[in-house]
Amino acid sequence: MRGNIAAIMQKEMARFFGDRQMLFNTVLLPGLLIYIIYSLMGSGISQMVSQGQDEVVAVWVENMPAGLSWMPEGGEGSMVVVERAFGQGSVDSLADKDINAVLVRFPAGFDSLVAAFPAGEVPNVEIYYNSTNNAASRAYTQLTQMLEQRYSAYTVNAPQFEGQHYDQATPDAIGAMVWSKLLPMLIVMLLFSGVMSLAPSSIAGEKERGTIATLLVTPMRRSELALGKVLSLSCLSLLSGLSSFIGIALSLPRMMQADGGTIGMAVHYAAADYLALLLVIFSTMLLLVALVSILSAWAKDVKNAGTMVTPLMLLVMLVGLLPMFQGDAEVSWGVSLIPFYNSIEAMTAIFSHQMQPLMVLTTLAANVAYTAAAVWVLTRMFNSERVMFRR
Amino acid sequence: MTDEENIVLQAKGLRKTFTLSRKQQRIERTASRVRVAVDGVSFSTRRGEIFGLLGSNGAGKTTTLRMLSTLIRPDSGDALVEGLSVVEQPARVREKIGFLTSELRLEDFFTPNYLFDFFSRLHGVPQEECHRRKAQLFDRFGIGEFAEVRVANLSTGMKQKLSIAVSLVHDPEVIIFDEPTNGLDVLTARVVTDYLREQREAGKSIILSTHIFSLVEKLCDRVGVLIDGRMAACGQLAEVADGLSMEDRFFEIYQRQKGGEQ
Ligand SMILES: Nc1ncnc2c1ncn2[C@@H]1O[C@H](COP(=O)(O)OP(=O)(O)O)[C@@H](O)[C@H]1O
Ligand SMILES: [Mg+2]
Asked: In A124-268, where does DSSP find H-type helix?
């Protein structure tokens, strides 16, 4: 009887959308909070960036073109330009973000290549720097700008030389680091608060107020009630998850502006990253709803439900903190099977540009499987008079 | 029809025990872990009759009715509702009965109108039928003008009347009401008892529990006297009363039962 499940779901929806406070707490608040927090964080990073202003940057230039006289003038930030060849060892040393240096390598015969343009080879300038070093990043931006200005005036058809830059930091290091370490926990916490504002009142509350007993004397099956509850709570909680997600998506450009505008580094995510993130959020939400529903069904009343969920909340928070103490996201099969840890790791991986489709898929599959098991348990509980009519 | 064919509901040796929590043990000052709430209760009710379950507080009335309505399972014994077992086919039984007890509440947030439709749907009542019955019952119990007022804002009496209407959305053959007039003012109580009489005329089988002797005398055709979970007497009202008032008769039975135990 799918009709009964639909009836229960519609009732839950009517209850939810008729309550403005609930609507605000679950749908608007999470997204708004994330947006505000991360936008603030974005401007925090901008400040960090501008702090690198008066540091001196060493610029090593290999094959300095004869016509290039602008180098020593150097712009506002001070640069010390040195003409010298450098090897791979010097390039590698830039991985240390405390080294204020930019390495520039022009191709041999750069001038003649430019002169011959647009015929022949496109001149390729290699620029090495570490984008997590603010001063170096700023110098890099200035150098490329100067280079572009200089040569667009020189020829009618400006040689679009591939000003290849070699970022010696791990990809998008600062941004990705901040995102990957903090955001997963924040997301899970917001999801949790969304579930907490829904499930206990819908299940423990109905039990406490005796309204669930009225449902139990209708011909509806207990499994239909359990399923109707979990599905509607999931839909509503997903709305709250979606809100968090939109908050993230909207604050991302602010982050990018903060980083990318100044230091040429962008926290840039592909559509696949966003999709994976959304799916991980949704599956985590399902599992959360099912688990909190079980605890709520077991609890005597809403207050009791809150007490019972607290350990789960702390546990999940603890798991959420783990990425702080780890290096790169761990990629192992076992990890994707551990509830919550798998989601945290998957999100960490996504934010640090290390998303692996297989890992995300196993995480999703595991979460859905755990949810199904939890719904089964919940049905058993609705069937048990011990649980439903505990005194 | 013979008397046998007329039987709509038959309880056979219903027994229910509750395991007490430590807290309950302390509150009730008892050392035993197990409370026998209902102990081997049997009775039957027929079409077109009102059966009264009479007993003091804690006698086991509510527990008995909860077993009949499949909310809880008997430890042993069974009851057949129109031939369907409350133990084996609880969902089918629930289609046949309308159950009212104080522990069944309606959500504060919703309006009578919404709740009536909602429960009609769960009972599989067709929409047209639902509207017809809603108009009829709301009119009968004076709910009409409060149809769009949230339950939270209804008076206790109005809530009770709405609960009655909601328990009857599917026009059940068997009506099981636990202390239906409790907490109602005299006017509302009268509306309820009048309605039950009407349902009796319509051929429904009605079981109600009460601790009010006069209600049994005025309303019931047959009565079962429940004392400490046991059926101490059961039969036609006149038979059970045996020339005494129900009150006097009850205390006689009570004394005898208690005396027999000591
Ligand atoms: N869930 C329960 N847990 C423990 N004891 C219960 C429970 N329900 C009822 N009882 C006990 O069973 C006995 C009968 O209760 P009940 O059926 O409610 O009586 P009545 O409705 O006649 O007042 C009482 O002693 C009551 O305390
Ligand atoms: Mg009672």
From this structure: 134-154, 173-196, 199-209, 211-216, 222-263
Interface pTM, i.e. ipTM: 0.92
Q: Is A211 on the interface with B (CB under 8 A)?
A: yes
Q: Give the integer Cα–Cα distance in Å for A100 and A133.
A: 7
pLDDT digits (tens, 9 = 90+) for A17-69: 998 888 887 888 878 887 887 777 666 655 555 554 557 788 888 888 876 65
A339's CB contacts (< 8 A; 6+ apart) are: A287, A366, A367, A370
Domains of chain B: 7-261 (3.40.50.300)
Q: How many CB pairs below 8 A link A and B?
A: 66
The terminus-to-terminus CA distance of chain B in angstroms comes to 44
Distance from CA of A212 to the nearest CA of B (A): 8
Neighbours of B152 (CB within 10 A): 11
The model's pTM:
0.77
Q: B103 to chain A: nearest residue by CA?
A: A210
Residue of the CA atom closest to atom 10 of ligand 1: B37
| Residue A16, token pair as written in the block | 């939810």
Q: CB of B66 closer than 6 A to ligand 1?
A: no
> A79-127: per-residue pLDDT in tens?
777 787 888 878 877 777 777 888 888 888 887 877 777 676 667 788 8
Whether B107 contacts A205, CB under 8 Å: no
Angle between helices A357-383 and A271-298 (to 10 degrees): 20
Q: Per the CB < 8 Å rule, is A18 touching B107? A: no
Indicate the burial class of B147 (C-beta count within 10 angstroms; 0-12, 13-18, 19 or more). middle
Cis peptide before A118 (omega within 30 of 0): yes
In tens, the pLDDT along A286-340 reads 899 999 999 999 999 999 999 999 999 999 988 888 877 765 545 566 788 899 9
List, as one string, the DSSP characters of A138-178.
Answer: HHHHHHHHHHHHHHHHHSSS----B--EEE-SSTTHHHHHH
Number of other CB atoms surrounding residue B22 within 10 Å: 8
